[in-house]
Design goal:
The protein has helices spanning 33-48, 73-77, 97-110, 126-138, 153-163, 176-179, 186-189, 200-203, 206-216, 229-241, 282-287, 292-308, and strands at 14-18, 21-25, 58-60, 63-65, 85-89, 115-119, 143-147, 172-174, 195-198, 220-222, 272-274. The two termini are 32 Å apart. Strands 4-5-6-7-8-9-10 form a seven-stranded parallel sheet. α2 links the parallel β4 (63-65) and β5. α1 crosses α12, α4 runs parallel beside α5 and α9 (206-216) crosses α10. It has one domain (14-308): Enolase-like C-terminal domain (TIM Barrel, Alpha-Beta Barrel), CATH 3.20.20. By secondary structure, it is of the alpha/beta class.
Length: 309
């Protein structure tokens, strides 16, 4: 990766060529087999099954900024080119609210026309989340939305109620509270979010993700999990299959990698990505091939997880 992102400096993925084209299986290495098997179901669906009906041919994309110092912001965002929306990572372990605010203020200065989102990955307490939102309001910075400010559904519900005392314009988005819980609809049923951030792989595939979006009855943003362009392609097709899509999607993360598995990576142009499958390049696969012991580990993991399905 160009910049360390939530502790990740290198991304591992297993690519499979199915009858519909290449598909990706890339559960993070620390995931247990039960969780990784859900991701495998999504990969098999994208490689083997027909696509759902699509409603659009291109998707609006946000830039994504890691928790870098203010002086590193322009360099970190340069690979994204032109963009209308930027998601700023906050609540990085070892950093504080002042560092987060300095990052956000500098983004607003450098890109005054861009819509700004915050993503805390559940790292704030309710009081901290309200504090950073209040600081932004005091500095005249509007929020597109605040993604997973706190860890639990209860905390999200509490913050959503309390933040309305300061502003009725700040939207709360749920990410981990959708993909890391046994019931992805619980956060919507609890009235703890204004919109959902959905990833296809953690929910078991596009069809299940579309069911969750429909049953939740909330606006949806489609995001990636630091996928290669093959995995990004699945996210783009999911975004295209949504009947309504109000927000730019977090599917521009291929720009955060030094390399990719295709000669035509899914890098946004003028804030958009075309919905397409990716042609994998054999030369790129050789360049980025895992070492033998790592490849063996993935194949053994694949066999175990496939048996679970």
């Amino acid at each position: 990766m160009r910049t360390k992102f939530r502790g990740v400096t290198e991304r591992e993925a297993l690519l499979i060529e199915g009858p519909q084209g290449y598909t990706e299986w890339s559960p993070f290495v620390e995931y247990e087999d039960e969780e990784a098997a859900v991701w495998l179901a999504a990969a098999l669906e994208f490689g083997w099954d027909a696509l759902p009906p699509l409603h659009r041919t291109r998707i609006g994309i946000n830039a994504t900024l890691a928790a870098v110092a203010p002086e590193g912001i322009e360099r970190a965002l340069a690979p994204f080119g032109e963009f209308r929306t930027v998601k700023v990572k906050v609540a990085e372990p070892g950093q504080d609210l002042n560092q987060d605010l300095a990052r956000v203020i500098r983004v607003s200065q450098l890109y005054p026309e861009a819509r700004i989102r915050l993503d805390a990955n559940g790292g704030y307490s309710v009081d901290q989340a309200i504090a950073i939102a209040g600081m932004m309001l005091e500095n005249g910075i509007a929020l597109d939305y605040f993604e997973q400010p706190c860890a639990t559904i209860g905390e999200l519900a509490e913050m959503r109620v309390k933040i309305r005392r300061y502003s009725d314009s700040i939207k709360i988005a749920a990410d981990e509270s959708v993909r890391k819980v046994s019931d992805p609809l619980a956060v919507a049923q609890a009235g703890a979010a204004d919109l959902l951030v959905i990833k296809a792989a953690p929910l078991g595939g596009m069809r299940r993700a579309l069911e969750v979006a429909a049953e939740a009855g909330l606006p949806v943003v489609i995001s990636s999990a630091l996928d290669t362009s093959v995995g990004i392609s699945m996210g783009l097709h999911l975004a295209a299959a949504l009947p309504e899509l109000e927000f730019d999607c977090g599917l521009g993360t291929a720009a955060m990698f030094i390399g990719d598995v295709t000669r035509e990576p899914l890098i946004a142009q003028d804030g958009y990505l075309d919905v397409r499958r990716v042609e994998v390049d054999s030369t790129k696969l050789e360049v980025f091939a895992a070492e033998d012991h790592c490849g063996d580990w993935w194949i053994e993991r694949l066999e175990r997880c496939y048996r679970l399905l």
